[in-house]
Design goal:
Order of helices and strands: HEEEHEHEHHHHEHEHH
Strand order of the largest sheet: 1-3-2-4-5-6-7
Number of helices: 10
CATH class: Alpha Beta
Shape: globular
CATH topology: Rossmann fold
Structural class: alpha/beta
């Protein structure tokens, strides 16, 4: 059994806020807990905020990284469940960005008693189109293969190519630069493993197993998770509520923090309007 202190150090867990209701934020691929800094101040007075870095990301303990454990999303699910256990969390409000939306849903399937509500920011259960199911994920398999091939051959070039596509919002070049720098600061082996676990994942069949209510925040003009994905999730998730945001791109918690704060607050306080 891993000691509590080791888990908190391993995942660089930070806890703050004046409230008692746990609000757990999980960052997306190539990012770290710093990406939440624009929206967490909006919740500090009312919630107990928990942020962390997945093993291999940010300021986590790289010595704890294992390619075997993190070869698929279950390794990241285990990170979340171990953090929850270490902090004795319950009735959690979970906020996940991008792939962490699916990681959070998978965690809620394993331990439904821990989670009260889920907020899924730019989620996708499968990034690859599937004509047999009329599913639009946004990419052909060859697109993903080419992307990962570029990543393996020229990691810096890959980061420079992908960051503006993900962030969009060209009027905020500093955000694009920050995302690119975050990609580049991640160990290339870790990033490649996480990318494969992310872009080759298919969690469509898992959606029907979820029993925790979810808010789906779908951005306008998101190159990673198209609008069709949002409607798909709304169709198959238990008590899934879809909100189409005015925000563009794939990182509204950075590019459109106030809209993101308002929508999350309304949902968590049961003041949400369709």
């Amino acid at each position: 059994m891993i000691m509590t202190e080791n888990i908190l150090q391993r995942n660089n867990v930070k806890i703050y806020g004046k409230g008692t209701q746990p609000l757990l934020f999980a960052h997306g691929f190539g990012c770290d807990q710093n990406m939440w800094r624009f929206i967490t101040p909006g919740f500090e007075n009312d919630y107990k905020i928990i942020v962390f870095d997945y093993v291999g990301s940010g300021k986590s303990d790289m010595n704890a990284y294992s390619v075997e454990r993190y070869a698929d999303l279950q390794g990241y699910v285990q990170d979340i469940l171990e953090i929850c256990a270490a902090l004795s969390l319950e009735n959690i409000f979970f906020v996940g960005h991008s792939v962490s939306s699916m990681v959070g849903l998978l965690a809620s399937i394993k331990a439904p008693e821990l989670f009260k509500k889920m907020v899924l920011i730019c989620p996708s259960p499968c990034y690859i189109n599937d004509s047999s199911d009329d599913y639009i994920g946004g990419f052909e398999r060859s697109d993903i293969e080419d992307l990962l091939d570029l990543m393996g051959k020229n990691y810096i070039g890959w980061a420079s190519f992908l960051a503006p596509i993900i962030m969009q919002n060209q009027d905020h070049p500093e955000l694009i630069q920050e995302l690119e720098a975050s990609f580049c600061s991640t160990n290339a082996v870790v990033a490649n493993c996480f990318a494969r676990a992310t872009f080759y994942s298919d969690n469509r069949r898992d959606l029907l197993k979820v029993r925790t209510p979810s808010l789906i925040l779908q951005c306008t003009d998101d190159a990673i998770a198209p609008v069709e994905v949002g409607y798909y999730l709304q169709r198959y998730l238990y008590e899934g509520t879809l909100k189409l945001m005015e925000a563009t791109g794939h990182c509204p918690q950075m590019s459109h923090p106030q809209e993101t704060i308002n929508l999350i607050k309304d949902y968590l306080s049961d003041n949400f309007k369709e």
